[in-house]
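Usage

Read records sequentially. Each one opens with the input sequence:
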Amino acid sequence: MSRRMGCTAAVIVSLAALVAAERRTDRWRRAQRRAAALPTPNAFDHYLRAASLVQMPSVYTPDPYPACRAEGRRSFLDDNADALRVLRSGFGHAYAEPPEHAAAWDYEYYNRCRRLARVLTWEADEHAARGDAAAALASQLDALRLGVDLERGAQIMELTTCLGIQAHARQDDVIGGRIHHLDAQDATAAARRLSDILDTEILPVEILRTQRDLMPYIWRLHRRRRKAKECPKALLRWRLFGGLMFRIYLHYLDDMEAWADTGERGAMPGARGPIWWLFHRVAGPGGDALDDLDEWWLNRAENERLVCALALQAWFAAHGAYPDTLDALVPEILDELPRNPFADVGTDRRGKRFDRSGRGVFAI
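and closes with the structure output:
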């Protein structure tokens, strides 16, 4: 009797092990197929080449070029003309970062992309100095487009870098000060272009889902690199503790994805309880992801507000006065009104939109 029970238990354990192994294999195969499904041509190849061509010191240097506001700025733009040309040649393609590159944690690539964004803002300054407000705004929107594209390849912990590029591209003293110099045609074109850029922006739930799908592939690449470089004892420690952290991290991403998916059309999801927040802050492998996601929604709200400001300038340039409500902007200037991503839990998010007061645009 006991022998029969022992055999039954052994069979059950073996079947459970086989099911677990098959699940791991399926997860790996899905991640491998996702990794191979990269667009061709890929904008990443253009951005990577442009990042290697940019000629600037580190972005952390406080004021690398004191003369960049005058004649020195033109020489810097001439030095980086090839980098900007290659960068803009990638704007017409989809962006997807290869998992091998993501697994390498190439921080220098993102730092160089931030330098490219700075070159674009200096190009905007140069256009503004020549009195070409439309070209200046186009350069700023190029920098914003760069930040939006990089979100598709960034790990969730590196999302702040991409958002920093966008924030630098639309700062009030750069874009806000040039909006009122645009005519109706240029303002309308800028509003529609910015709206199109935001339509292609990847949502937080998609960022989390992509990272969740590719994580087994990236994790295996990490393990292969460590196996080739480290001693057997260090590799054993990494396998013992790394596997546990990997499972915790997958659970963490699953929970974050389910939370982010509650926001309608990318709206800010409802706040979680303090216990959930404390667990992810203390035990989560990347507690800063909460701050990064909050920053994403704040950044998105500012970009949507900028669409309103550009559309209002187009209306003012065409009619000589501002409209009474933003509804008048559709469909003459915009296909649909920008949406405020912030909303309270249990309310109708469709009622949360932007409104104007005087010459400002506020959320209601």
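Summary fields computed downstream for this record:
- Residues 32 and 217 are 6 Å apart (CA to CA).
- Confidence is low (pLDDT under 50) at residues 58-62, 344-353.
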